[in-house]
Write a structure and sequence with these properties.
By secondary structure, this protein is mainly α. The protein has four helices and no strands. Helix 2 packs antiparallel against helix 3 (74-96) and helix 3 packs antiparallel against helix 4 (102-132). The longest helix has 31 residues, at 102-132. The radius of gyration is 16 Å and the shape is elongated. The termini are far apart. Bound molecules: fe (ii) ion (2 copies). The site of one fe (ii) ion (FE2) has 6 residues, from helix 1, helix 2 and helix 4.
Length: 140
């Protein structure tokens, strides 16, 4: 069983958002394996950098998508993202200052936050899409 399991109740749009979330789940698992296997600092640092970078990219991409859909709770959602981005920056700062436990903390923090945030907050996009999308297939 993976450290962070993807589950069906995490599905949001069957598209870009899910792809991003799955990629994040994979990266969290990669970081967790690297830290528990005691792999080299360079390997761990590379995964951490990728994971933090991808998380920031995802938050921005999701906000842009929400804006293009005229999602009504965007402002509140953005605040949640902002708080989490700050948490990530604080961890990055601790790591830069030499804290060795940051890598394993990062996989836990990301797993716990993503797991809840996707199921509670991102899920609101799914509900919104279900309400606003036409029942019949759109003609292009
Ligand atoms: Fe989100
Ligand atoms: Fe998300």
């Amino acid at each position: 069983m993976a450290y962070f399991e993807w589950a069906d109740d995490m599905v949001i749009d069957g598209g870009l958002i899910d792809q991003d979330h799955k990629q994040l789940v994979d990266l969290v698992n990669e970081l967790h394996s690297a830290t528990t296997d005691g792999r080299g600092v360079e390997v761990i640092e590379k995964i951490m950098t990728e994971l933090i970078g991808y998380t920031h990219e995802h938050l921005e991409r999701e906000e842009q998508l929400m804006a293009s859909l005229h999602f009504p709770n965007l402002a509140r959602h953005k605040i949640g993202h902002m708080h989490f981005a700050k948490q990530l920056n604080d961890l990055q700062k601790k790591y830069n200052e030499g804290s060795l436990t940051v890598a394993s903390q990062l996989s836990t923090v990301l797993r716990d936050w993503l797991s809840l945030h996707i199921r509670r907050s991102d899920k609101e996009i799914k509900v919104f899409l279900q309400k606003t999308s036409p029942k019949t297939p759109r003609r292009i």
